[in-house]
Amino acid sequence: MRTIRCHRDNGLVKQTLNSPGHGAVLVVDGGGSLESALMGDLIAAAAVRNGWAGVVIHGAIRDRAVVRTLDLGVKALGSNPRTSAKDGAGEVDVPLEFGGVTFTPGATLWADEDGILVTP
């Protein structure tokens, strides 16, 4: 598992998902904001091309109809068609905590329609 903390800026998300994923899951703490999307269909397609298994976003995505057709597990709080900033502000590979769960880089994450499980 890899992690990113950012707020209404998906520059680091795009950069990370455009790098080799090696079957990992990217967890993004967007602070729970639904004001703009942190991932859309183009970034999700790049994740597939680069071997990412999934993305968990504590925030919004866009282009849900296309994203759901991709071979990529995606969990998000909701959707919003508004794009985010692209400045690259945020932190990469830091421990995150939301939803009563701590997401630590290097941990293992499993997810299905019912929820998410994380183990060290």
What is the structure about, briefly put?
The protein is an alpha/beta fold and 120 residues long. It is 17% helix and 35% strand. It has helices at 11-17, 41-49, 64-67; strands at 2-5, 25-29, 54-61, 73-79, 91-92, 96-98, 101-103, 108-112, 115-119.
How would you describe this protein?
The chain has 120 residues and is an alpha/beta fold. The chain is built from three helices and nine strands. It has helices spanning 11-17, 41-49, 64-67, and strands at 2-5, 25-29, 54-61, 73-79, 91-92, 96-98, 101-103, 108-112, 115-119. Strands 4-3-2-1-5 form a five-stranded mixed beta sheet, covered by helices on one side. A two-stranded antiparallel sheet has the order 6-7. The chain has a two-stranded antiparallel sheet with strand order 8-9. The longest helix has 9 residues, at 41-49.
